[in-house]
Design goal:
This protein is α/β, with parallel strands linked by helices. Helices cover about 30% and strands about 20% of the residues. It contains eight helices and ten strands. It has helices at about 5, 20-25, 75-90, 105-115, 135-150, 165-170, 190-200, 235-255, and strands spanning about 10, 65-70, 95-100, 120, 155, 175-180, 200-210, 220-225, 260-265, 265-270. Strands 4-3-2-5-6-7-8 form a seven-stranded mixed beta sheet, with helices on both faces. Helix 4 (about 105-115) links the parallel strand 3 (about 95-100) and strand 4 (about 120). The structure holds 5-O-phosphono-beta-D-ribofuranosylamine. 5-O-phosphono-beta-D-ribofuranosylamine (GRF) binds next to helix 3, strand 6 and helix 8.
Length: about 280
């Protein structure tokens, strides 16, 4: 698939796996990721439900489904929504790891309930030669854990730490975050409070590729959520969270089963049939 030539950006493909990251790391203009032709279905990750004429395929993703790691610092409701989608057979991925930077974070217990392996990478382990916390070093430690488990896709879900360095290069096009606002509005902390204080009538949530910035990467998917009269931060947060729980696994499914090209900041998906 060489749609990248038309749009001038790198091609990201579910079939590329680690190769996709390598090609992306080479930057714009790099060779297209080898993958199936434009009319061929994605090489991996198709559930029976996606094949014409076959019925739904409930149950966990098969062992050959692409491996997903969820990175989270807290509660883990987005992890649970993703794990449930995998369990239902709606998301053709395999949960290979939950990684947290917070020992004892509730998400670790949620992961154990779903039988997903967990690891804590403590920030204290990521000091540089001067003894100071190093974002690059932290990223390297996370990268080691991901590679050790053959992780192909990474979903940040309430992971309260910026990542950088080699990790982002290796997982370019395959590492995403969810943020509870319609980016680029209200990035950073407390976006629901920001939205209420600004007085918007509509806010929502965004799934985007992760880059070095804070909530700045190219947008994969968004869902609008109304702000109701009388909303508090809590009621608005709950309404957005409900949308997040549905949006995130759908965005991950597209990532795992379709190719996309980056045209500047625009993420252009190319359907399995070769149409955008
Ligand atoms: C979600 O609102 C997510 O968008 C934001 O942090 C929150 C995490 O919630 N990045 P949970 O831990 O998934 O319940």
């Amino acid at each position: 698939m060489t749609d990248g030539g038309r749009s001038g950006g790198p091609v990201f493909s579910s079939a590329g796996g680690a190769a996709a990251g390598a090609a992306a790391a080479a930057g714009p203009g790099s060779a297209a990721v080898p993958g199936p032709g434009p009319t061929a279905p994605p090489a991996q990750g198709l559930t029976a439900a996606q094949r014409p004429g076959s019925g739904p395929a409930p149950g966990p993703a098969p062992a050959e489904a692409p491996a997903l790691a969820v990175l989270a610092s807290g509660r883990g409701s987005n992890f649970v929504a993703i794990a449930e989608a995998v369990r239902r057979g709606d998301l053709p991925m395999r949960l290979a790891l939950v990684l947290s930077d917070v020992p004892g974070a509730p998400v670790l217990e949620r992961a154990a309930e779903f039988g997903v392996p967990t690891v804590v990478v403590e920030p204290a382990a990521a000091r540089d030669e001067t003894g100071r916390y190093s974002r690059r070093r932290y990223g390297d430690l996370v990268l080691e854990e991901l590679l050790r488990r053959g992780v192909e896709y990474v979903a940040l879900a309430g992971f309260m730490r910026l990542l950088g360095g080699e990790l982002l290069r290796r997982y370019a096009g395959r590492i995403v975050n969810i943020h509870p606002s319609l980016l680029p509005a209200f990035p950073g902390l407390e976006p629901q409070r920001q939205a209420l204080e600004y007085g918007v009538c509509v806010t929502g949530c965004t799934v985007h590729l992760v880059d070095e910035g804070m909530d700045t990467g190219p947008i994969i998917a968004q869902r609008a959520v109304p702000v109701e009269p009388g909303d508090t931060v809590e009621t608005l947060t709950a309404r957005i969270l409900e949308a997040e729980h549905d949006l995130y696994w759908r965005a991950l499914k597209r990532l795992a089963t379709e190719k996309f090209v980056l045209d500047g900041r625009r993420v252009k998906f190319v359907s399995p049939a070769g149409r955008e």
